[in-house]
């Protein structure tokens, strides 16, 4: 049995709303959100870690590239537990990298580096960790997307209201780069 808490984000959460409390979360029972075709599950965030890091998963089907973006104050980790994900990263000098990551592979994106990813196999899962001096961005997913109690991928893609793109990303240290071009070939 897992304890439930009320937080400023949700009426029901298995994540305590303040730091300093140990807790445990059963598989897939974190704070879930649907965004496009993917499901994001948050297990730890800024409130629990005094804004030092977050821990979340992203699951999705094979699909389109997630738009190029950067996190000016946040470092991000991609660890693949299932399937395959192609990670695109550009360093601060403009050199671009592309790598197909499969189960057990790891990718690191420094703060302020443009990056994107594409899920290459159905039912792929990314374990993500983000940390940095600017705090954490895990609540971006449910504020741009939609919170859900459902387990699994969205039955239909959740497409955010276009007006959200003007406010939500900046609030969570996400800068979309709509004109960014990947020269890596894939």
From TrEMBL:
Sequence ranges assigned to domain Cupin type-2 in this UniProt record: 61-119
CDD domains membership: cupin_QDO_N_C (cd02215)
Name the record gives this protein: Quercetin 2,3-dioxygenase
SUPFAM superfamilies cross-referenced by the UniProt entry: RmlC-like cupins
Pfam families found in the cross-reference section: Cupin_2
Segments traversing the membrane: none
Phylogenetic lineage: Bacteria, Bacillati, Actinomycetota, Actinomycetes, Kitasatosporales
InterPro entries associated with the record: Cupin_2, QDO-like, RmlC-like_jellyroll, RmlC_Cupin_sf
Gene3D superfamilies per the UniProt record, alphabetical: Jelly Rolls
């Amino acid at each position: 049995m897992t304890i439930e808490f009320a937080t400023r984000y949700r009426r029901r959460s298995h994540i305590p709303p303040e730091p300093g409390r140990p807790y445990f979360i059963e598989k897939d029972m974190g704070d879930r959100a649907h965004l496009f075709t993917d499901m994001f599950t948050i297990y730890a965030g800024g409130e629990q870690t005094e804004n030092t890091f977050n821990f979340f998963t992203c699951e999705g089907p094979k699909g389109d590239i997630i738009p190029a973006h950067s996190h000016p104050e946040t470092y991000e980790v991609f660890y693949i537990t299932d399937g395959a994900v192609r990670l695109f990263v550009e360093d601060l000098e403009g050199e671009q990298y592309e790598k197909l990551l499969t189960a057990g592979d790891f990718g690191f994106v420094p703060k302020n580096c443009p990056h994107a990813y594409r899920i290459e196999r159905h039912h792929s899962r990314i374990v993500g960790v983000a940390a940095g001096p600017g705090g954490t961005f895990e609540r971006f997913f449910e504020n741009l997307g939609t919170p859900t109690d459902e387990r699994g991928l969205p039955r239909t893609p959740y497409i955010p209201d276009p007006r959200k793109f003007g406010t939500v990303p900046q609030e969570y240290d996400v800068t979309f780069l709509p004109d960014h071009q990947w020269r890596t070939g894939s």
